[in-house]
TrEMBL record:
Keywords assigned: Signal
Lineage: Bacteria, Pseudomonadati, Pseudomonadota, Betaproteobacteria, Burkholderiales
Gene3D superfamilies in alphabetical order: 3.30.1450.10
Name this protein carries in UniProt: Transcriptional regulator
Organism: Burkholderia cepacia
InterPro entries: BamE-like
Amino acid sequence: MVMDRMRRVGVWAFMGSMVGLAGCSMNLPPDFSSHPLVAEARRVGATRESVLAVDGAVLRARPTRTVAGSCVDYQIEHDQQRRPFYVAFDRQDQVISHGFLTCNEAEVAGYVRTGRPAQVAD
C-alpha cells in the first residue's frame, strides 16, 4: 500500500516536471554551416584568395607542418556563439582541408593532407 502510494506520487511528480519542461525552449547549438566562410571553404575549387575575400579577419596564419602549404585559423560567430574554424591550403593555394578545429588540432588529428579531397572536421 505504501509502495503503491509512493509510485503514484513519483508518477505525478515526473509528469509535473515534464509539463514544466514543455514550456522551456531547447538550447540547440547554432548551425554554422550557413556561415559564408564555411560555405566558401566547402566550395569545390575554393582558393586562399577566395576564402580571404569572404573573411579576411584571420586570427593566425602559419605554414603547415604535415604538407607543403599553409593554414589559417578563424573564430566565427553565429547566434552569439563562437567556434574555431580552420582552412588549410596546399602550395598552389587550393583548399585541401577545413573544419571546426584549430589548425593545430586539425594537423594533430590528421585532417591536413595533400592530394586528397578536402576533409571536413565537424
